[in-house]
Design brief:
Blueprint: H1 6-21, H2 32-57, H3 68-78, H4 80-96, H5 103-132
Length: 135
């Protein structure tokens, strides 16, 4: 994975969920175990997406005629399936931890969170390509 530090992902995810707390009450019927399972699924899906991005971009690191941004965009296209699975996991997590009145806001924030994670991953791929290229 690009980001081996699960703590950084968890912190970003927790911060997003805390923001949702302001717009809706937490679901009283979701146990800590259920919440942890959903969060684990989300992190697992993000790892699959990141691994896909690395696998799709690494073969092109030495192709100096290919701009790193093009490599990252091509990898994103090839990894759309894993990204969509990650986005669904984010939506499932965000909507599971808020009451019915906050579902629309949770869904919107989940999509925004996933889009930002995708953008950050593409930026990390660009940096990875640049760092691995011969000088």
């Amino acid at each position: 994975m690009i980001l081996r530090n699960a703590g950084a992902r968890s912190a970003a995810l927790i911060a997003s969920v805390v923001m949702l707390g302001g717009c809706a009450a937490m679901q009283p019927d979701l146990t800590d175990k259920q919440r942890a399972k959903l969060q684990g699924s989300l992190q697992s899906q993000f790892g699959v997406y990141q691994d896909c991005m690395v696998a799709q971009s690494d073969p092109y690191v030495t192709v100096t005629s290919a701009p790193p941004s093009d490599i990252a965009e091509a990898a994103q296209g090839a990894c759309d399936g894993p990204f969509q699975a990650y986005e669904k996991a984010v939506v499932r997590y965000f909507t599971s931890v808020v009451s019915g009145s906050g579902q629309d806001e949770a869904r919107q924030r989940a999509h925004e969170h996933a889009a930002e994670a995708g953008l950050q991953t593409r930026r990390q791929i660009i940096k990875r390509v640049l760092d691995q290229r011969p000088e």
